[in-house]
Amino acid sequence: MNSPVVACIGLGGNVGDAAGTVRAAFDALAGLPGSRLLATSRLYRTPAWGLTDQPDFINAAAVLETTLAPQALLAAMLGVERAAGRDRSDDMPRWGPRTLDLDLLLYGDAVLDLPGLQVPHPRLLERAFALVPLVEAAPDVLIPGIGPARDALARMDAGDIEALTYPEPDVAP
Length: 173
Fold this sequence. Notes:
- Helices cover 25% and strands 27% of the residues.
- The protein is an alpha+beta fold.
- Strands 1, 2, 3, 4, 5 and 10 form a 6-stranded antiparallel beta sheet that branches. Strands 6-7 form a two-stranded antiparallel ribbon.
């Protein structure tokens, strides 16, 4: 059995009830074998990136302690995407609309360059929509070979990222 590793996952979506889908994905990640959800960020409304002519995204981050190997974790994450209705077929535009997108941002202090899996995520340092929730969920996380994620975020413009607030549920006295 593998020793537990702390993995950081970026979540996002902009089709259907994206906020509900991201919240359900938190639960699905918590239920992965050999895994425990340690922290989540708030949800954030962010402008589309890459292919910008589409609805805003809802983004978040999750911190997961897992004994799954990186490739097994990625496969499990893709299963969570499929269960949420994600279509990754070749005819779908890159960075286009999606019900759910899960990105393995960090896997402990590993630096991996494997077919279909690069960690740290290769575009993490370009994406405020990933770094803002990541730094909220894991304020002291280090990006291997780079340093503190909060320092990388401080060098970015995150002014168009809006934290979503929700009313507290009614609690009977």
